[in-house]
């Protein structure tokens, strides 16, 4: 929990009664954003500080410090300090055991467990047992080769998507169910592609789920792609294919004459 001990807190207690009694997690600065997550391999929390520093803690050993040590059990995030990113961060996102930080120069640094899946964007250079952040830092890896300034970054499942100038979107990572949106022949991209997704307009926001993605256009329209098995793409037809590997418009409202 970041308190520098291994004491469980809040188990079986009413959160409304517990929260006023808890001390602040010693971060060493004011937090402006927080992300949390985990897998069967352990749990984590990360905070983006107003200073632009990122501090992570939890049981995982690829938190970005390059030490292979869990953080928060016998030390606090304040004592460990910032993850070496190579610059100040302005945004932070996570999925499972993976993280990306957008730096103030609009470059991207990513780290975590699933490097082999392509979610981190550093290319086809990892085996299944190689991680980023365990024996190297995000600064050591350098910027993810997007090729141009990133305006916003989103992660979900085993993929990463970025919003670029002009409302353009690119995604990479694992796409067994069409989740990265480049068609049925593209199952995995281990580094950022040069090609924008065909979305039919400028994108102002993205929602990246575990196995599907939706884009909000500046026209107010929505386009989604990925797994459609539970109706999450809003297609309204259970007879359609289980996956949609290119963006398709979601009919939100009837057209008015």
From TrEMBL:
GO terms for cellular component: cytoplasm. It comes from the Bacteria. The lineage of its organism: Bacteria, Pseudomonadati, Myxococcota, Polyangia, Nannocystales. This is Regulator of chromosome condensation (RCC1) repeat protein. Residues 1-22 are annotated as: Disordered. Pfam families: RCC1_2 (PF13540). It comes from Enhygromyxa salina. SUPFAM superfamilies: RCC1/BLIP-II. GO terms for molecular function: guanyl-nucleotide exchange factor activity. InterPro entries: Ran_GTPase-activating, RCC1/BLIP-II, Reg_chr_condens.
């Amino acid at each position: 929990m970041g308190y520098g001990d291994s004491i469980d807190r809040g188990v079986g207690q009413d959160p409304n009664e517990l929260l006023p009694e808890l001390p602040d997690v010693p971060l060493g600065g004011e937090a402006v954003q927080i992300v949390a997550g985990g897998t069967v391999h352990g749990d984590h929390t990360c905070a983006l500080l107003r200073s632009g520093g990122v501090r992570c803690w939890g049981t995982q050993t690829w938190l970005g410090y390059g030490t292979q040590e869990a953080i928060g059990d016998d030390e606090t995030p304040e004592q460990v300090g910032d993850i070496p990113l190579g610059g100040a961060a302005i945004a932070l996102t996570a999925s499972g055991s993976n993280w990306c930080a957008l730096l103030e120069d609009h470059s991207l640094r990513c780290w975590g467990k699933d490097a082999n899946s392509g979610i981190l964007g550093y290319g086809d250079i990892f085996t299944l047992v190689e991680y980023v952040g365990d024996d190297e830092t995000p600064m050591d890896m350098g910027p993810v080769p997007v090729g141009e300034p990133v305006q916003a970054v989103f992660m979900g499942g085993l993929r990463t998507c970025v919003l670029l100038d002009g409302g353009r979107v690119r995604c990479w990572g694992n796409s067994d169910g069409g989740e990265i949106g480049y068609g049925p022949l593209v199952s995995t991209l281990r580094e950022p592609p040069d090609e924008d997704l065909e979305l039919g307009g400028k994108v102002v926001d993205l929602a990246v789920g575990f196995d599907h993605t939706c884009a909000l256009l500046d026209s107010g329209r929505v386009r989604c792609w990925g797994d459609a098995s539970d109706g999450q793409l809003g297609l309204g037809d259970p007879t359609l294919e289980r996956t949609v590997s290119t963006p398709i418009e979601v009919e939100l409202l009837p057209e008015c004459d």
